[in-house]
Design goal:
eleven-stranded mixed β-sheet; four-stranded antiparallel β-sheet; 9 helices; elongated
């Protein structure tokens, strides 16, 4: 049993036992969440959720911990998730119900009060990611820690930690993308020259500024023109510009474009605000539109957009649409880019045929005959499953007729066929055998003892073809052939030993051409009894007229794979 799994189970039990789920009486004290600090790191994002007192936090580990996979020992027990849920049983919020983060891979934070919360005390906190992440480190109260090697956790990887005084919940999410550094606007050096002059003449304005504060620039424009020009609260820029003989609207628009601002005119007043939807004047100039996605997931397509656009694009999973907010030109640009990405997926038809050959010596001789040619050289070892070759011409000589001739020479028996239409990256699989249930022993840290489990196991041959990419005349596929068999029983426990052999390769397969896969040989031993008719059934002396013989039967399996393109719009099928 993996020690890390045992440690994880112990941690979860201790966490559930030590994190109290409190029942609040009237007048019970509570803490207020008063700050969410967002910090962009070189390889991710750090979130610090602060409160004015100790928080009692219960983490919903079922979102990222697969208990069934852990108990059965099959599959990865780590479960990627897009949403981290926490319940702060003694919390209230002073900062509202929604906190925009907008730094990949973290989208936002949601806070709500469950209906059953007594006196409105208790917060359901959800940290929503742009894409699925996997927790690799969890530190609970009193310093209890569970951690897996970060190098073994695919990004985005999530670290969850409570501060020692329990007043802060700290989350660090690493990114699977390169994160650009934040934009820092340098201030003019100390002692740098400064100049500001505004000239107004018959409706035309000229501006000469060097290292001037934007607030001072607008103040002089107001005094010179008599127009109402305002700047959003907290907004600052250092302006260096030379704008000559322009109308007031043209000059202000030039400043807005040059310094990443939004110009709004309301009731004969001009407003300059940050070019971000978090400003109300900016929101007034924006539009919203839903873009339906037809051929792929809206979430997948949204994550293909540049990081700088993510805060303006939301996903409606129920309708599989992208909701875009921004100026009209921005919405049209996003629609154009989305249309180029939202294309029908490539479908391939994969044909799998499985044959059984009873005499491997005949197969070896026939295959050598098939591969014999003056212009090629081969090294063939069927027992080891190795084939080395080189060609002195452009295309291999094997044709469909030659393959069928091979199957006839070796007296191959047709066993099974599967024709499947699959999308790129999805495997077509043919399984020949049976599923058996095997008894296993595993150590259960909850009971602290070994327990018996019944696990389903596929016994037989599995051939899998997974298309990776497709061209005009060929496709690149990952071919996996696996053979599993129960070979013996373990001495002492009587538990079965499962033997598995597999072959994995990546091939370029021309459309409608044939790939022949072999090398899987099984041996079966039978005890046969022969007797002389009538005499072999005589009592006492019948054994003199019988004989017993141990017979070995060797069988080899050959798989034939063909790949064909499917026109877009054709319905998928499987038979």
């Amino acid at each position: 049993m993996n020690p890390a799994k045992i440690a994880l189970s112990a941690f979860l039990i201790n966490a559930l036992m030590t994190i109290p789920l409190l029942v609040w009486a009237q007048g019970q004290a509570y803490c207020q969440i008063n700050q969410v600090e967002v910090k962009r790191l070189s390889n991710g994002v750090q979130l610090i959720i602060r409160a004015d007192g100790a928080m009692y936090v219960n983490l919903d580990s079922s979102r990222f911990f697969n208990m069934d996979a852990y108990h059965t020992g099959r599959g990865d027990w780590r479960k990627p998730t897009r949403v981290l849920e926490f319940f702060i049983s003694n919390g209230r919020t002073q900062i509202g119900n929604f906190v925009e983060v907008g730094i990949y891979p973290v989208s936002h934070i949601e806070m709500s009060v469950p209906p059953e919360a007594p006196e409105g005390i208790g917060i359901q906190l959800r940290v929503v990611l742009y894409t699925e992440g996997t927790p690799w480190r969890v530190v609970g109260e009193r310093g209890r820690e569970f951690a897996m090697p970060l190098s073994q956790t695919p990004a985005p990887a999530i670290s969850i930690e409570m501060s020692p005084d329990q007043t802060s919940l700290i989350l660090v999410v690493t990114s699977d993308r390169r994160i650009p550094p934040p934009l820092v606007r340098p201030a003019p050096p100390e002692g740098a020259p400064r100049h500001l002059q505004v000239v107004y003449d018959t409706g035309r304005v000229s501006l000469y500024a060097l290292n001037a504060d934007l607030q001072a620039v607008l103040q002089q424009i107001r005094e010179a023109t008599g127009e109402a020009v305002f700047l959003s609260e907290g907004l600052s820029r250092t302006v260096s510009a030379s704008l000559v003989d322009m109308s007031l609207s043209e000059l202000l628009n030039a400043l807005a474009v040059a310094y990443g601002l939004t110009l709004t005119q309301r009731d004969s007043a001009y407003w300059l605000s940050e070019g971000d939807l978090r400003d109300v004047p900016t929101y007034e100039q924006t539009a919203m539109q839903a873009i339906p996605i037809r051929h792929t997931s809206a979430l997948t397509l949204r994550n293909c957009l540049p990081d700088s656009l993510l805060r303006y694009v939301r996903v409606d999973s129920n309708q599989n649409t992208l909701v875009v907010a921004g100026p009209e030109w921005f919405i049209q640009k996003v629609k154009h880019d989305v249309a180029r990405l939202d294309r029908p997926p490539i479908q391939l038809e994969v044909e799998l045929n499985l044959y059984e050959v009873g005499d491997t010596r005949e197969a070896r001789r026939a295959l050598r005959t098939l591969l014999s040619s003056d212009s090629e050289a081969y090294g063939l070892d069927l027992e080891q499953g190795e084939l080395g070759y080189f060609f002195l011409q452009e295309e291999p000589p094997t044709t469909e007729v030659e393959v069928q001739s091979l199957l006839q020479r070796v007296k191959a028996r047709f066993v099974s066929q599967s024709v499947q239409r699959v999308l790129m990256g999805q495997p077509a699989t043919l399984f020949l055998g049976q599923q058996r249930t095997l008894k296993t022993l595993r150590f259960d840290p909850f009971l602290y003892e070994f327990v018996e489990d019944v696990v389903p196991v596929d016994i037989g041959i599995t051939v899998s073809v997974e298309p990776l990419c497709a061209g005009h005349d060929s496709a690149t596929v990952r071919l996996t052939t696996e053979f599993s068999n129960v070979v013996e029983l373990e001495v002492g426990t009587g538990l079965p030993t499962l033997s598995t052999r597999f072959l994995r390769s990546v091939l370029r397969v021309p459309y409608n051409q044939t790939v022949l896969v072999g090398g899987f040989t099984t041996e079966q031993y039978d005890l046969r009894r022969r007797a002389v008719p009538l005499l072999g059934r005589l009592p006492i002396v019948g054994w003199l007229f019988t004989s017993r013989q141990r017979v070995r039967t060797t069988t080899e399996f050959l798989a034939i794979v063909r790949v064909r393109p499917v026109e877009n719009g054709s319905g998928g099928s499987e038979r």
